[in-house]
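Extended Data, panel c. Modelled sequence:
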Amino acid sequence: MVKNKFKNIAFIFARGGSKGIKDKNIYSLNSKPLIAYTIEVAKESNIFDDIVVSTDSKRIALVAESYGVKVDCLRPKNLAEDASPEILSWKYEISRYQKKKPFDKFFCLPCTSPLRSKDDIINMSRFFDNNKFDLVLGITESSKSPLFNMVEKDKNSNLKRILKTDHVINRRQDSIQYYDIAPACYITTPEYVMNVESYFDGSIGGFEIPKERSIDIDTIFDMNIASYLIKDKKNHEK
């Protein structure tokens, strides 16, 4: 048995070359850099033996350190490009970390989910522990169904439904319930990550996150919605 083995390690992956929103991971959301929301909720959850920020950017590293997470080494640039599969960064950081100390559970906490709560993380961790999935991720009810009101368009503007069924569906209420991935948290083991090419290769469990906490920041529009929801929550807490 390995002595002093860590249980839970939180990894926050934050590359510097975002395109949709310049410097997205340190973009000011209600006077606070976006990454700060993830660092703070990881600390508030009080379940992590360590919190690691993985970045290729010195600017992001400095912001992370101002919120109490020291970045001792920048991620290689080839693992922070637009087309770089994130699982390769997962493998890189797990391998690097385990040279210092082995651990049981790998948590990826994306910066783009600033509205997740500490209870979301804690309850997802319990869900992972109480089931036999290789990986657990957040999901939220989708407001659109590919069986009913989602279409694709060809170069001539012809539309067709993305998916078809044997029976006609005329109402959204009659459609199968679909879910969007909510990037609140991904939980798995180091061993699983190191032995797959995609995190969907194994048995995947979905833990439902309320829609009001499941926003995934990709555009300024998303940022504006998040800003409103954060302000609204603070007003209700007064």
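The chain has two domains: 6-141+180-237, 143-177. This feature is highlighted in the accompanying rendering.
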